Amino acid sequence: MDMHTVVSTAFVIAAVAGVCALADGPAAQSRTVYDPSATDPRVVGALDAERRMERALIGEYEQTVATLLADLTRDNHALAIEIASLPETIRGYGHIKATSVAAARKKLGELLARYRTAPVRAAA
Predict the structure, then answer these.
(1) pLDDT of 48-58, one tens digit each?
(2) What span, in angstroms and rounded, lies between the C-alpha atoms of 69 and 98?
(3) Any alpha helices (H) in the chain, and if so which ranges?
(4) d(CA 117, CA 92)
C-alpha cells in the first residue's frame, strides 16, 4: 500500500464514523462516559422540566390565538397582533428562559384583560 491509499482509507473511515454519529442525533452524541451531565439526574430532570414547560407553552399559545380569533375586530386587531407576538420575547435556556416566560405570561394577562374590555364599535 502506498501512502495515498492509507490516507484515503483513513479519511473514509473517519467520514463514515462521523456520519454514523450524526445519524444517531445530538441526544445520542451527548450520552458518553465523558459527559457527566448525560447521567446527572439533576441535569436530566431540569431538561425534562424545561421541555414540559415548552410543550405547555404551545398549548397556551393555541388557546390564546383561539380566544383572539373569536373576538377579533378591526378595532382590536393591533392589540391582537401584540398579544400573538408575545412568544417572540421568550429567550434563553434554564433560569433565563423561566424568567422570560414569567414576564411573558404576566404581560399576556395584562394585554388579554385590555383585549376583553376593549370597546366594540357598532358595525357601519
Answers:
(1) 888 889 999 99
(2) 27
(3) 3-23, 25-30, 41-70, 77-84, 95-117
(4) 33
Q: Do 52 and 33 form a contact (C-beta atoms < 8 A)? A: no
Q: Hey, what's the torsion of the CAs at 77, 82, 87, 92, to 10 degrees?
A: 170
Judge whether residue 11 has pLDDT over 80: no
Q: Which three cell numbers stand for residue 72?
A: 377579533
**pTM for this one?**
0.60
Q: Interhelix angle for 95-117 vs 41-70, to 10°? A: 20
Express each pLDDT in 84-123 by its tens digit: 999 999 999 888 999 999 999 999 999 999 998 876 665 5
Q: What residue type is 100 in one-letter code?
A: S
Cβ atoms within 10 Å of 64's Cβ, excluding its own: 19
